[in-house]
Amino acid sequence: MGKLNPPLLLPSIVSAGKHLSIFRSSISSSKTIATHIQHFTKNSMSVRGNPKNFDNVDDALILFNEMIDKYPRPSVVEFNKLLGTIVRMKHYAIVVSMYSQIELLGAPHDVYSFNILVNCYCQLGHIDFGFSVLGEMLKLGVEPHVVTLSTLINGLCKQGKISHAASLFDEKVDKGYQPNLIVYSTILNGLSKTGNTDRAVRFLRMMEDRGFEPNIVAYNTVIDSLCKKGSLNEALHLFSQVKVKGIRPDIVTYSCLIHAMYNLGQQEEATRLLNEMVDNNISLNIRIIY
């Protein structure tokens, strides 16, 4: 992946950097985590073993307390395992606070720990702070991973900043960024859900032109958007192309088209498509009824 030094990123990185330290301090100064750790350390048995085995955040907090008190201190890999476990529990603010405490201890970070932090900020709705972390990575000479940019693009889409996400995507692809299926699907879904149907169709064609074959989920996203827009003929044309490519339509594909046909008064065509679906051994779904 090419060096990340784009003009598009600079405004986000600079503006977020001004407030990031204040945000971290406000979370770190909260008594919530300290209270949890103190209470459960005094009243629970010591937690050992693999962080992935935790089923609640309290156990993870106990282990974190043990790790930061341990000497020599555990490696960044061990901290990443713990932070990743807490992320899966969706306690994003707690992870941000832990990250700040780890920084104060002078523990090193790697691209994975930075990615965890970027993800937490995006999940908390602070995409600007996510870009600030990206700036911090660049400053420290840590090369961002494809996951870093994927997370930021996903965060932009979740906040409805689809144009910004698409522009960032285009810029990064031009610089050698190799997006994965999740990134393509995220932008495609964002364009479709925000009514940018024409742009979603172009994006789908771009995927094909770049040799990245969309799956049925990607096609369904665009077909659904076309149907909701009232462009049934275009949706049916895309549906035909899907079958020509040897991609098997699923219940979602048929459901979108049948709904659109009924809404346009094309009951006979809808019935024909319903029979085709049954002939292809695709199970009926409650969605077809409405």
TrEMBL record:
<protein>
    <recommendedName>
        <fullName>Pentacotripeptide-repeat region of PRORP domain-containing protein</fullName>
    </recommendedName>
</protein>
<feature type="repeat" description="PPR">
    <location>
        <begin position="145"/>
        <end position="179"/>
    </location>
</feature>
<dbReference type="InterPro" id="IPR051222">
    <property type="entry name" value="PPR/CCM1_RNA-binding"/>
</dbReference>
<dbReference type="InterPro" id="IPR011990">
    <property type="entry name" value="TPR-like_helical_dom_sf"/>
</dbReference>
<feature type="repeat" description="PPR">
    <location>
        <begin position="180"/>
        <end position="214"/>
    </location>
</feature>
<dbReference type="Pfam" id="PF12854">
    <property type="entry name" value="PPR_1"/>
</dbReference>
<keyword id="KW-0677">Repeat</keyword>
<dbReference type="InterPro" id="IPR002885">
    <property type="entry name" value="PPR_rpt"/>
</dbReference>
<dbReference type="Pfam" id="PF13041">
    <property type="entry name" value="PPR_2"/>
</dbReference>
<feature type="repeat" description="PPR">
    <location>
        <begin position="110"/>
        <end position="144"/>
    </location>
</feature>
<feature type="repeat" description="PPR">
    <location>
        <begin position="215"/>
        <end position="249"/>
    </location>
</feature>
<feature type="repeat" description="PPR">
    <location>
        <begin position="250"/>
        <end position="284"/>
    </location>
</feature>
